[in-house]
Amino acid sequence: MKFQSQKVAWGFFATCMLLLSLQLIYGFIMGFARVGMDGLHQYIPFNAARATHTNLLVMWLLAGFMGAAYWIIPDECDRELAWPKLAWLQLVALVVTGVTAIIGFHLNWWEGRKFLEIPRPLDFLVVIDVLLFIGNIGWTVWKAEKKSTTSMVLFFGLLAAALLYLPGMLPTDNQTVDSFFRWWVVHLWVEGVWELIMGAILSYLLIKLTGVDREIIEKWLYVIVGFTFLSGVLGTGHHYYFIGTPKYWLMVGGIFSALEPLAFLGMAIYAFSMAKKGGRTHPNRVALLWTVGCAFMSFVGAGFLGFAHTLPQVNMYTHGTLVTAMHGHMAFWGAYAMLVLAIIAYAMPLLTGRKIYEKASAGFAFWTSNIGMTAMTLAFAVAGVSQVVLERRAGMEFLTVQKEIEVHFWGLILAACLFTLGIGAFVWDFIRYGMPNAPLKSGEARSVTPPEALPAATVARA
Ligand code: HEM
Ligand code: HEM
Ligand SMILES: [Fe+2]
Fold it and tell me: Ligand 1 pocket by C-beta < 6 Å: which residues?
């Protein structure tokens, strides 16, 4: 750790671990409800569990991005964070707002708009909280003499994400208008500005972990940013096929969203080639595994499985079925969950001075969670495709079909157990790292090996 103020990242990462664990509990509640074991229904009906599951996901990913920024920005800007105490306050406020929202869902206090269920008064608190965050890192970047491409892309990605939260708050009682702007948040986040955040964090991690020259790595960042904007903005049209918007969206959405996988493909090639180019001497091999794994799995989940249902001719049948859940799981996992786990895997040894990445459990967490998530995606895929065929092609009644595909949720539960084992290992390791800069246990050695200390031979030149 170069700067004391980077310590605040630990608080955000710990929050991620807690909320991720809670998210999985709600996943199981839904999985069991789907096979008829819905004993908690009176207290946690499916809609409340679903809203809680997805909002916890978004919340821990945002906490992860904030933690990543509080770690990366001081390092890239070569100065302490502007207001570290404000960052801690902002973390507490974020958690309090989130917990209030989750309790609200259980008391039927919610907006009923998928992913934007948080009640309106709490939206304003989120906005204030995010403004404090943006102000803190913005001021740090502004005051810095050194402004790296990575830090600028990260900052503008986060700023744009904050601004794009606002269209979701436009008051309207028109269903189409509401849906239209809901996608400005949901789609333009995950298939637009969050990709910038992802590009920047991957760039930072690759610079640190491979030892390849910053110039080469950052050049790729521009290519990815370019592709993202070229395809992602008009790609929003793939959500405007059937919501009451004009017909031209069928063409616009189909063409531009079909180009979107290119940005993810670019990121996968970029991560693989940088990892190959660079030396393999950085001791934190597991962090590199998460980094390259993130680029690869995001291509599979977002690029490949997104493309699978993005053309209007296909989406007409798959829209709103479990095919969407199949894609949603692998895309969120590959692109953003793995990204946050990658930065945590990288930063924790430097925060605490302990090299847990050498333990077998660190590799176990990576492989088990990824195999588990792949199996979960397959279970959703089989359920989704069966649903499409029976309901939309054979014309069977909705609930009859839901009963018919119940068996696949047993498959989901089994796969989710494997996945949870992997995540359990990651969370357990996080707990074992202990507090930032905690004293070492006997027999352990400090592990801080900054890339600058790598042998020159491992640093590839242009
Ligand atoms: C224990 C593991 C998990 C289980 C059992 C689980 C189960 C479920 C279930 C049953 C649904 C509702 C599907 C439906 O509409 O019937 C759901 C929704 C969702 N879950 Fe999970 N989940 C788990 C972990 C995760 C993880 C790790 C992520 C993200 C990285 C995730 C992201 C989502 C998303 C985005 C949705 C909404 C999908 C949509 O919009 O259709 N889940 N999950
Ligand atoms: C990391 C990036 C991505 C994430 C996290 C993601 C996640 C999701 C989620 C959660 C949904 C359900 C949203 C809702 O119904 O409210 C969704 C829908 C959809 N996604 Fe993605 N996605 C990503 C990238 C892509 C890409 C690149 C494509 C196309 C190539 C794509 C195509 C679609 C389509 C067509 C739908 C609508 C499904 C329907 O009609 O029900 N996604 N995505
Ligand atoms: Fe989209």
Answer: 24, 27-28, 30-31, 34, 50, 53-54, 57, 324-325, 328-329, 332-333, 337, 412, 416, 419-420
